Amino acid sequence: MHSSIASVHFICSNYFYKMDNDNLELSPQQSLQLIESMINRAKDKFAEGGFMYLLWGWAVFFLSLTQFVLLHFFQYTYHYIVWMVSWVIVIYQLVHTRKKYKKQKVHTYTDYIIGYIWLTFVVLIFLLGFLIGRLTSGEYYTYIVPIVLALYGMPIFLTGIIMRFKPLIIGGIGCWMLCIITTFIHIYDYQFLMIPLAMLIAWIIPGYLLRAKYKSQ
Amino acid sequence: MFKDLDPILHSQLRLAVMSLLISVKEAEFIFIKEKTNSTAGNLSVQIQKLKEAGYIEVTKDFKDNYPNTTCKITKQGIAAFEDYVKALQEYLKVGQKK
Fold first, then answer.
1. Check: complex ipTM more than 0.85
2. A67-76: per-residue pLDDT in tens?
3. Are A181 and A85 part of one and the same domain?
4. Across the interface, which of A19, A26, A107 has its CB nearest the CB of B38?
5. Average pLDDT, whole number, for chain A?
6. A167-170 — which CB contacts under 8 Å span 24+ positions?
7. How far is B35 from chain A (nearest CA, A)?
């Protein structure tokens, strides 16, 4: 077993030292080994440093807590106004993502698909806000927390599956469980406390774990 | 009878480049150079050959005021790569039967 691993290693390392010598005759076996090792080399980079999860996790954590304080302690009618701050974060993130995209030397299909999952999520969040406002009369806000939590779980769960990163998978499932729990909380104000909790388990904790994994590479 | 192995792909560096590009959406020249441990001169020549065969798409632009080359596999390249792997598998099957 060890000798076969050693010989594969020897053959592979020979490729990289002699890659410039194009006259070397390749056997079918060597060709397949070369293909396999190059595909593995392309995959071995873990590109996500957790920045987006920490940025949005902490932002939504504090914004939703502020909203709860305004609603519960001050009975402020326009408590939802705090979410206007998220536009600033959207702009900051767009600039950051653009910079990161330009810096990357390689763009993988994984990054590409994950990018579109998050874009779908953003579109759905805005559509949902629009639809609930349009279709329900006045009492819409009493349903918003469980619906938003159901949606929050989707990109987190899918990203976890694609990246094979368990904390995100658990976080996504956690959001869905919180979504069901929320429907049993009859005092509407307290439902808002489920959002910071969801941020903690689905975005902030996985975000720090992602960062640790990225730095350990 | 054996399928002929595509001479464009049956070369170490070109095969390495194609194997890298088949697993990513697109990659910069510098990334390919790092991963294949090749020299810039030889890599340029091989990339040009792959481009002429229609297997890869090469775009040149500027990044931080420096010229930047990005490579991406084409549909034709994917088909050629798949045929090449199938042909290799046939060779290996025959080898095992012996």
1. no
2. 889 888 888 7
3. yes
4. A19
5. 82
6. A167/A205, A167/A206, A167/A209, A167/A210, A168/A202, A168/A206, A168/A210, A170/A201, A170/A206
7. 7
